[in-house]
Amino acid sequence: MAKEKKLVEAITSMEEDFAQWYTDVVKKAELIDYSSVRGCMILRPGGYSIWENIQKELDRRFKETGVENVYMPMFIPESLLQKEKDHVEGFAPEVAWVTHGGLEPLQERMCVRPTSETLFCDHYANIIQSYRDLPKVYNQWCSVVRWEKTTRPFLRSVEFLWQEGHTAHATAEEAEERTIQMLNLYADFCEEVLAIPMIRGKKTDKEKFAGAKDTYTIEALMHDGKALQSGTSHNFGDGFAHAFDIQYTDKDNKLQYVHQTSWGMTTRLIGAIIMVHGDNSGLVLPPRIAPTQVMIVPIAQHKEGVLEKAAELRERLGAFRVKVDDTDKSPGWKFSEQEMRGIPVRIEIGPKDIEENQAVIVRRDTREKLIVSLDNLAEKVGEILDTMQREMLERARIHRDAHTYQATNFEEFKEAVATKPGFVKAMWCGDQACEDKIKEETGATSRCMPFKQEEIADTCICCGKKAKSMVYWGKAY
Amino acid sequence: MAKEKKLVEAITSMEEDFAQWYTDVVKKAELIDYSSVRGCMILRPGGYSIWENIQKELDRRFKETGVENVYMPMFIPESLLQKEKDHVEGFAPEVAWVTHGGLEPLQERMCVRPTSETLFCDHYANIIQSYRDLPKVYNQWCSVVRWEKTTRPFLRSVEFLWQEGHTAHATAEEAEERTIQMLNLYADFCEEVLAIPMIRGKKTDKEKFAGAKDTYTIEALMHDGKALQSGTSHNFGDGFAHAFDIQYTDKDNKLQYVHQTSWGMTTRLIGAIIMVHGDNSGLVLPPRIAPTQVMIVPIAQHKEGVLEKAAELRERLGAFRVKVDDTDKSPGWKFSEQEMRGIPVRIEIGPKDIEENQAVIVRRDTREKLIVSLDNLAEKVGEILDTMQREMLERARIHRDAHTYQATNFEEFKEAVATKPGFVKAMWCGDQACEDKIKEETGATSRCMPFKQEEIADTCICCGKKAKSMVYWGKAY
Fold first, then answer.
1. Residue A42 contacts B where some CB pair is shorter than 8 Å
2. Helix, strand, or coil here: B203?
């Protein structure tokens, strides 16, 4: 039993030290390993397979809206990066520079892409001539590099995986429509598949993307009450089009600039899954994203017929992603591993169960134990997975709402941020000076101006002037 | 009509200038665009969607054999690259070096991965302790960088997409088995899906991978008679295990070194598809890999009911990948585009066809035209796609066999290489001096020692000494 206990004991409890709990989970659930490369992580099969499922489902949803995938070079020549002024200012300080190819120095150094707006614009300038060439709705799946000083697995790393969509449209209206469409697609995906409720809204000018006219965001609340920006969608207007001279001939034979958008989600989502759903036994994966949905653990597997029955059950559950753990570890150890890895459902089957034509089903999130007849096992498992998916979203929503406060003056606001981890809703005048002051004095940043505005007061909590919008504020990852 | 002709006229014929024909096809079929980054190409939707289909099918086949996907960092610290002597010698001259992160110089420079053996070994040394941890059968999909001086789209570029499998096994036998298993998986995939017949065999020591004990290869013959190495699988023995100290405790509690393999295929396969199947009207895609299998072209689409009928046919053909070209281009232009892009089947449907309850089907490879009743359209399309897939492989095999020669002495060999583009089968003593001399005097390299050996003579064509094996020789991409 000593050995069996080790796996669980090795995790710090989240109440004791949330950051350490997080680090323990990513390691012990075998999602990542640290590498010899500073700030870069290795995505192990446990972590990468979650990303594969995210990719598969997002990609399907993208394509339904007409997205086409492409692949751009990973390098950006320095002169190309510099074409759009705000953009280069935002990214130049945090890129990795390639200066030598083989044994020779390069004539012009190149950065490893931190994002690919400049490459897409350069390409669009080449291939867009007429209104017939529009819209272009391209996306790429790749990795990008940002030279971060402090890194944490999934949340902030030097290299990370993501998708970046880049579109070009004939009109400003169409670009705005696409920007919002993708934001909603992201939010729906997170809610329906990852069971993470999202606040949808617009970033303040201070927080928007380098080079964007408007940035929209979806924001989630983690278990510790900190916010996580989970996806962003940017409307560039025609700023990049002017910088890169992307023009088309319209139906009246006049030259027009295109209107552009970009939007991205990253492996950060895996961090969100961990911090929204995890518990002190490890990861808890929403069934729809879990690489393995059901782990069958044979009990007394050396006894005749047990392994055969386990294999038979796997066949019967062919509609789900099922594995049998037939390694030579003890059942207790297998239970701990299945819990640590967040596999939604465990089925225990032993000689006594076989005799009674039944199995024990244990749900990962609630630990609920059910004894089920083998005759309707598949049906039951399906029900449990559906219920679990629904209830995980519901619990996350309840947690978020219970940790969403509001403040009508600066004192209330400061107290809320200092004592109650979570979102604080408060009115703002729209002035960056107030936003800066709030961040400086409380550590909370503006997360977004939600689409669903509420009039909780008339005046800005900071300066007392007339309020322009309600903002979600919070400390964030 | 002038405009319609342009698309086709713009292609150089392959008989006139094969290299130019190739370049024309990759551009006009919109597979790639050149980028502002030297030697790097942009994979446009037409090209990337072929890669997506290759990925999907290969990945499925990998996973059936127990492969798990992971993701490693894109950077390799210089000290890590240097751990295995042969490996670093092979790759150091052609890597891109990152020397600065943000505004500061790095303490140790890092290369962008040209391949990831060193990173996998470093990781394996961390995670492999016991025989219980074996085998590890990992793969990653990513891009790699090799600082090539002369580049050609798909065939040789500074950055390219690939998969790289890296495995660790308890025994030498198991490693050898996996090496051969993956080579056969590659060859089967190329033959069954890409309709490209392969020669399976072993590389000579001169041609093997930097650091490998044995390299196996699959070799294809292009339309112009040049060979293309299409996939390789390496058995490393325990060389890397010694260099990186990857040891496990066996069942008898003794420390043992692991035995490793690696294997990879790249976007080069798209070059092979073009050069094996293409013709003077453009690309010809094997139905199983074609992103669009059927293009429906409405004739006189302004007339009532035509576009509706085209949409109805698309629905009826739901089992295939079908598009309707309802743009405002002329039918002739649409035909040229469908041919240029290599879409296997075109369906023409106009007012007269609708009246007669029929459609015209045109097969891309043979240009065969069929008038088919709409009542059994789906069945007919299915038959045509199957036949086309089978016949494309058969034609490629006939072409290859017709361009495979044999030589029993050096004079015959030199004449064959000089006058008959293709493979030359000839005996070899196993001595690298002969291999070097053959290359120097004829330009032909050893492609492989095929698994299916034939005794076409007793002596080496070069030195006349006793022959050890029959080798396929040829000029290669």
1. yes
2. coil
Instruction: Round to whole Å and give the CA distance between A55 and B291.
Output: 19
Q: How remote is the C-alpha of B106 from its chain's centroid? A: 37
Domain ranges of chain B: 8-277, 294-385, 404-474
In CATH terms, the fold of domain B8-277 is: BirA Bifunctional Protein; domain 2 (3.30.930)
B31 at A interface, C-beta within 8 A: no
Does this chain's domain A9-277 share its CATH topology with A404-474? no
Task: Check CB contact of B95 with chain A, cutoff 8 Å.
Answer: yes
Question: Do residue B97 and residue A98 have CB atoms under 8 angstroms apart?
Answer: yes
| Mutation site, A32, A71, A121, interface B, largest B CB count within 10 A | A71
CB environment A213-237: b (16+ within 10 A), e (fewer) = bbbbbbbbbbbbbbbbbbbbbbbbb
Rounded to whole angstroms, what are the CA distances from B301 to A132, A370, B242, B313, B352?
18, 61, 69, 14, 12
Give the tens place of pLDDT for each residue, A319-353: 999 999 999 899 999 999 999 999 999 999 999 99
Size of interface A-B (CB pairs under 8 A): 154
Q: What are B396's two structure tokens?
A: 């490629």
With beta carbons under 8 A apart, name residues in chain A contacting B103. 93
Using DSSP's 3-state secondary structure scheme, residue A44 falls into coil
Specify the pLDDT at position A9. Answer: 61
Distance from CA of A343 to the nearest CA of B (A): 17
Task: Tell me how crowded residue A60 is: count the other CB atoms within 10 A of its CB.
Answer: 10
The architecture (CATH level 2) of A404-474 comes to 2-Layer Sandwich (3.30)
- CB contact under 8 Å between A40 and B75, yes or no, is yes
B102 closest CB neighbour out of A93, A98, A102: A93
pLDDT digit string, tens, across residues A375-417: 999 999 999 999 999 999 999 999 999 999 999 999 999 999 9
A42 contacts on B by Cβ (under 8 Å): 70-73, 119, 123
Architecture of domain A294-387: 3-Layer(aba) Sandwich (3.40)
- Nearest Cα to Cα of residue A301 among A351, A259, A354: A351
Strands B294-298, B345-349: pairing kind: parallel
